[in-house]
Amino acid sequence: MTIGQQKPAAPSVSRSILIVAAHPDDEVLGCGGTAAKLAAEGCDVHVLLMADGESSRNRADAPLVDASLLEARRAAADSAGAILGCKSVEMLAFPDNRMDSVDLLDVVQNIESCIQRLRPSTVFTHHAGDVNIDHRVVHDAVIAACRPQPAHSVRELLFFEVPSATEWRPAASRAAFAPDWFVDISATLEIKLAALQAYSAELRPFPHPRSLQGVTGLAQWRGASVGMHAAEAFTLGRKLVV
């Protein structure tokens, strides 16, 4: 290198983000706008889905889930991930709405394996107070998988709300969702809504909270509460500054 010549810049390393959600559509409902924002900023956003979201709907007289429904849900997850700009979407096969029937260690180890492979610095997952049992199991498993051991990649742990699961838990029953971390999704709300429409079979008519109007209203309210046009709200589990 001659005098006065600038040293070549070191190649940038993409920041890895992991979203761990119980069912396909939880990732969009909980943090789709944030995922799209991070992906647009150059982060590698990965989604790990633990159960299929379909199997628990079987009737007692028809215990086998229709394979076409499972395939449609997987395709919807891939489509939603592509709309958000996610780098990968992986779906595991834990029992839908029965994740409390398996050993928590099995759930933890699957999440740990994903973390070891992807080395995320930030993990998003469910809030502990949700009505849905799978959401609560996944929350506990993520906490265990993200123990702050030396050299562990995860430096930031955030818990999201899922309309029709988080707000339906009475505050007197369990700790209520009280957000202390807000992400401005004014520029990515439409992307979130487009990704949500990939799960059109899961949407309900307004005033159900899992409707396009309900999700939009929540984003606007979360935004207005902190001076933004639209936001997603989280509770901070842990933040390590090194």
Mean pLDDT: 93
Question: What is the total number of structural domains?
Answer: 1
The percent of residues in helical segments reads 25-40%
Provide the CATH architecture.
3-Layer(aba) Sandwich
- Provide the β-strand percentage band: 15-25%
**Widest sheet: strand order?**
3-2-1-4-5-7-6
Largest sheet geometry? 7 strands, mixed
- Which CATH class applies here? Alpha Beta
From the N-terminal CA to the C-terminal CA, the straight-line distance is 33 Å
Sketch the topology as an H/E string, one letter per element: EHEHEHEHEEHHE
Poorly predicted regions are 1-5, 8-12
The number of distinct β-strands equals 7
CATH homologous group name:
LmbE-like
Output the CATH topology.
Rossmann fold
Class based on secondary structure composition and strand pairing? alpha/beta
Alpha-carbon Rg, integer: 19 Å
The backbone outline, from C-alpha atoms, is: globular
Number of helices: 6
Give a written overview of the molecule:
The chain has 242 residues and is of the alpha/beta class. It has one domain: LmbE-like (Rossmann fold), CATH 3.40.50. The chain is built from 6 helices and 7 strands; from the N terminus they run βαβαβαβαββααβ. The protein has helices spanning 26-40, 67-84, 104-118, 133-145, 189-196, 212-224; strands at residues 16-21, 44-51, 88-94, 122-126, 156-160, 181-184, 231-239. The chain has a 7-stranded mixed β-sheet with strand order 3-2-1-4-5-7-6, sandwiched between helices. α4 (133-145) links the parallel β4 (122-126) and β5 (156-160). The model is unreliable at 1-5 and 8-12 (pLDDT under 50).
